[in-house]
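Data availability excerpt. The first of two example chains:
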Amino acid sequence: MPQSLYVLFEHASGYGLFRVKEFEEVATFIPEVEKSTNDVSKFQSLVKLLAFSPFKSGTNALDNMNSISEGLLHDDLQVFLESNVPKGGKKDKVVVGVSDAKIGAAITEELGIKCSHIGVVPEVIRGIRLHFPNMVKGLTEVSSAKAQLGLGHSYSRAKVKFNVNRADNMIIQSISLMDQLDKNINTFSMRIREWYSYHFPELVKIISDNYLYAKVVKLIGNRKAFTEESMEQLEELVMDSGKAQAILDASRSSMGMDISPIDLMNIEAFTSKVISLTEYRKGLADYLRSKMKQVAPNLGTLIGDQVGARLIAHAGSLTNLAKYPASTVQILGAEKALFRAIKTKGNTPKYGLIFHSTFIGRAGAKNKGRISRYLANKCSIASRIDCFSEIPTQVFGDHLKQQVEDRLKFLDTGEVPQKNIDVMKEAVQEATVVQAKVAKKEKKKKKKEKKMSSANDDTLDTTQEADTTQEMDVSQTEEPKKKKKKAKRKSEGEGMDTTQEMDTTQEEEPPKKKKKKTKVEAEEVDEPEEDLSKKKKKKKKDKDQEADEAGDAPEESPEKKKKKKKKHKKIKTEDSD
């Protein structure tokens, strides 16, 4: 029966549906298809683009990619296939070529379209992938490469799911580094002991600690040059006067051979490296303790920081450890012994990594299996609380630890411990109080940060306003100065005009009247606008007096009358100004 083949291609820019011509003939000659995939013209004669649906945004592309990787049919893909794939009849069947079998099964379940991922389909998809930018209009190789790169970064970032605040990956790396450092420090310290024992063999029996031995070797150096003057430094280092005296006596009567200064320099350099490694190891232990308080505080308080970190590292993550049952947590780390026991039909191991905790060492030989089972149960509870609680606290860890202590007493003495329900109720009440306090502290911190940010913004605004006000003040001070200068220039010009007129005319009026007029003018300029009515009354009185004086005095010449009119006009204009 004839079949029409359509190929679905998922690209970072969108979905593409292609029609393959002469499917039956092409399927029989697969080597010819392999050759034609390299040539664009030959491939386009066999395969043609039927429809293309671009993604709306980067988040939409990421959602579609996640659904395809999980083998689920996305809504966008479903709409695209329903609208573009034709329905096959009895004579002509429709087959959709898909790159993945999971997505093909999902399409057949949802839409009832037959899908295929074998035969000629992989070669056709390879050719489409090679020539996709040439087959879609408006898409270039550069833009397709950018889309693939961006989608790849976002997809990998979503898969990693790295959380800064709850980073159990840092715990895994730090505990593995700590174990490696312990091995290296032990081997290096043994090398120092062997190397320095040629010169001073008695020191190995006096000092057993590796870190202290390296420090003493660096301090002593050549045993023949070591005297009582450096005894104080040795006592401070060893923290024991008896040991210091024994080291001094042994250095005087040692059986070791002499050492050259070059060999001594190499030994001292190696001891300084070992000392720096041990100090770094101490800092790494503090870092691990702080991380365990942030990520898994209950597990750390129950079983210890290092043992809890080893459990998390062996499980792979805190969520994986929380998913494990208590029976798996009990044997975690003893897989070889477990499978060996299953193979030989022997006794299975009672404990794995939990054995390093102090509880199993304190228990008796008969009770070690019981206490390990009980401790594994409490560890699984603590890991689940740490994994799924929003605000982690140490309250549950303290109560669970007390329960293990009570169980140890019960196994040794027979004291009946408190019931689990009562303990958990108390723990829940305390945890709610502690979580409320932590939430309040976080709110206060957020408020302080907001206030600080707002205060900084206000200071910036005030500085900007101060700058603008200073500029405005400078501009305002410059404007009145200009106005004053203009007024002075006008008054000087008027004064010059009056002086010229007074020089040309006869000097009949006394100088006192001029002074009075100038005073009147100054008063009129200085007085406010509210006293205008008083000024008008005074002017009327002055005019009446002048009229009376004019009646008593002889008649003036017409030139003098013109000059007086000009002066009165100038005074009126100044009053109006």
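And the second chain:
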Amino acid sequence: MVSLSYSLSVPNEAPPVCLILGEQTNLAKVKFSDVETLIGQRVSSKVFDEVVSDLGDSEGVSLYPKCVSVASISSKHSRHTTPSSAHHISDTVTKHLPKKGDAVVVVVCLRQYVFACGVAVARAFPTYSLKTRDVTQRHVTVCFVTPDNAAPLSSQDIATLTSSATAVRLAADIVDRPRNEMTCEDLEKCAGRVVAELPGVSMTVVRGEELNERGFGGIYGVGKAAESPPRLVVLSHKPKGATKTIAWCGKGIMYDTGGFSIKSKTAMPGMKMDCGGAAGILGGFKAAVECGFSENLHAVLCIAENSVGPRATVPDDIHVLYSGKTVEINNTDAEGRLVLGDGVAYARKDLNADIVLDMCTLTGAQGITTGAHHAAVLTNNAQWESCAVSAGLTSGDMTYPIVYAPELHFSEFKSSVADMKNSVANRSNAQSSCAGLFIGAHLFDDFFKPSPIIWVHVDMAYPVLSGERATGWGPCFLLSLFGSYCSNSAMLNAVSPVLPVDQSSKRHKHDEMC
């Protein structure tokens, strides 16, 4: 188990282990005196300067065996990857930081990239493991050297980094845990522990048969066969003076067998990751509140286990979702959109949300569409699309937009007996966009009626994992996108895009139309 902390400055005492990392151009600007307290007893100024000057791109060198290393991260970044190179940091730390002993990681980066780079280090230290050998207890301190001679970090900055890193590690921990340790009930308990740490935050839970009684046909239909009942868990933060209401809806499928449209023996292992959206939302909510979120914020966790049993949904069943719309089930393995359909409808009907963001490990097609490193973003607002891409670049949780064309894609869900089916007719017609539009159909009565509700759909099915481990994708993206609302964090204010002008005052007109 690794405990992690951030330091205002470079520590004054030499640690057992030290790693200095950054892009080579930044490392070349580091003076030996900047890091002398950490490595001066083991490495001379001459050796340090020579090694750094000869260091190649994406290369690491041990300056003192098993104690001191310096590593460069790749300086290659195109316009669609983060200029901070934060997406390379976790692998670099894992590869070059000696495995035993308390450590200091020195991140050399420009001041504007401290948020992305600093939190990226945390991804290298997952909190979950049941290994019984080589179990190491260690503390890792992260500090920064900024070659642009920017203003030093403040205690508020350290608090932001700490909250953000904790959020990332919490999200990863939830995803890493197997189904026998992280059930629907367990995730509710985890949410309860988060609420207990946040003064003023309340939690609402609708579970089991109550879901059916209250019309949550999506969540109930997906999860009713599981031993641990499905549930809707809503965390609410309502600060004084708030003028907007924002809902973050997360897909929390604790395990996805595929249901009666069952997955194969090779496709099913690893499906504990299908709660990654809810995990990211929960972590992001915790950090946002800790950073002084100034608007009404709700985390809507749509939690179920997609199991097979006598009570399970079968193809041809028809469910009535919370929106009131009917859905013919033609694929029980397209379950995430069903639970989120209920979630976004709840955000509109019960929370009166002005901005609705859903986050989910929704489609395998996401990896084909935007790849393993970029989440797919679908939204009804072009300005928010640009903001989402910008937030991905500044946070390191990278994103890329996908086609928003309901007039071309929503017909894929045409049903003869219900308002829609839950899976597409043509799997070659923009599957990820179609899946997102299914969720949007339960937020909007008509895609082509003017609506002041901002909707952002984020499909992060592939970025949620790196190999077999969770990345903790999500919290940093949310904190960056909505950072302008974090009143206690100048750091998040600085990395947040300029959000479009608030349209919440027009909300009543939409309610009259719908």
